[in-house]
Design a protein that fits this description.
Shape: globular
Number of helices: 9
CATH architecture of the largest domain: 3-Layer(aba) Sandwich
Number of strands: 11
Strand content: 25-35%
Number of domains: 2
Oligomer: single chain
CATH superfamily of the largest domain: Vaccinia Virus protein VP39
Distance between the termini: 37 Å
Helix content: 25-40%
Radius of gyration: 18 Å
CATH class of the largest domain: Alpha Beta
Order of helices and strands: HHHHEHEHEEHEHEEEEHEE
Strand order of the largest sheet: 3-2-1-4-5-11-10
CATH topology of the largest domain: Rossmann fold
Length: 247
């Protein structure tokens, strides 16, 4: 049986849930904030690991960056290439497992955004992803990892949520914490008319200290933690866990 993240039908079924118009509308401001956090100058090479439908890759390219977007989901890559082509943007989109992609010293910056870290049952795979990201950066290159930190989840935890989405579908999320706060299991159910589809996701949880430790262990020399892309503190009011690491 394949893992949930290897199922293209999952990503297609829940695309409109993950990437609704509100979230898509945030991409431009998010990229501006990432550029500020990373101290990037236009023209640099940026790796967007787990690029999805390309919302951030396209915004970086619009600002003059040389962008490589990497994802394992073919339908998302097809959409990203189509969106880039409509604007004559030159973006390299690569289909690859994040554990396998590495391009030594090729990028000035890398991003891994929207809780696209911690998918794997074996924590050594997370370390491999982080190490590959470091190897792919030029000396002095910088990385942003954006995820939902363990502390934030504990503060905001709800066992279930549901709502009607823009396309008229009802989506229910049911959650439970596993293995002493090591992992989060989420069961997503989409109901549209007579159609019903459920998928179960498992994501490894990281506290701020745990993510910082992992990044340092694989070779990053400096790691700063923030509670948002606005560089607010990672404290009791944090909305996200944003790690900015320097090679």
């Amino acid at each position: 049986m394949s893992d949930w993240y290897d199922d293209d039908s999952f990503w297609e079924t829940f695309q409109n849930y993950m990437f609704d118009s509100r979230r898509l509308g945030l991409a431009s401001a998010e990229v501006d904030q990432m550029i500020a956090l990373l101290g990037l100058k236009s023209g640099g090479a940026v790796l967007d690991l787990c690029s999805g439908i390309g919302r951030h890759s396209i915004e970086f390219a619009r600002r003059g960056f040389k962008v490589t977007g990497v994802d394992r989901t073919t339908p998302y890559l097809d959409q990203a290439r189509s969106s880039a082509a409509k604007e004559n943007l030159k973006i390299e989109f690569v289909r690859s497992d994040m554990r396998e992609f590495s391009r030594p010293a090729a990028f000035d910056a890398a991003i891994n955004f929207f809780t696209a870290f911690g998918y794997f049952e074996n924590p050594a795979d997370d370390a491999k992803v982080a190490r590959n990201l470091g190897d792919s950066l030029k000396p002095g290159g910088r990385l942003i990892v954006d995820t939902m930190g363990k502390e934030v989840i504990a503060r905001k935890f709800r066992e279930r949520d549901w709502g009607t989405r823009e396309d008229g579908a009802i989506v229910l999320e049911e959650r439970r914490v596993l293995d002493g706060w090591k992992r989060l299991e989420s069961r997503w159910t989409r109901i549209y008319g007579s159609e019903r589809r459920s998928s179960t996701l498992l994501v490894r949880l990281y506290s701020g200290a745990e993510l910082e430790s992992l990044l340092r262990e694989v070779g990053f020399r400096e790691v700063d933690l923030y509670g948002s892309l606005s560089a607010t503190p990672y404290d009791q009011n944090a909305e996200r866990l944003v790690a900015v690491a320097s090679k």
